[in-house]
Amino acid sequence: MSDNNHLLSTQAETPPVTSEEVKLLAQIGFLAATSGYVVPAIRLFEGLRVLRPGQAFPYIGLALARMTVGAFQDAVRVLREEGLRTVPENEEIQVYLGLALALAKQPQDAQRLLCALLAKNHLDTHQVDLAQGIQAQIEGHAAQKMHPKPAKVIELSGNNKLKKQSVC
Description:
Elements: H1 3-13, H2 19-34, H3 38-51, H4 57-68, H5 72-86, H6 91-103, H7 107-120, H8 125-146, E1 154-156, E2 162-164
Helix pairs in contact: 2-3, 2-4, 3-4, 4-5, 4-6, 5-6, 6-7, 6-8, 7-8
């Protein structure tokens, strides 16, 4: 048997990758992406995209790897054109798209997206925390541009108590 035939027969006998193995590979990919090992992370997430078509996490990992090296517009493209095309209306992809938009210096687009997501009230706790954290960073950055010290946006309510005004 030639070497190529041996490889083909070995691949045919390989058992499917389990959910636990995929989870471990994804964790390794996210760690690699956020630690600067961008090329290995991208390769891992491209493989996971093949192993788990229709899942959101490979697109988020691919985008995070790009964000790590400052390729924010490319991260926006991956999430918007690839991720949302494959997994339409996925809230987690949309939250990370909000992050990528904010980092790509498109804060108004990020705020619109995040406000719409938060208004739907379908996000899990982690997604809500992330979306609100991104909004707070955008607000803080905008306030620093306008004022030397961050300012809180407040208004007087009918009973003269101060309350914070929502961005959305």
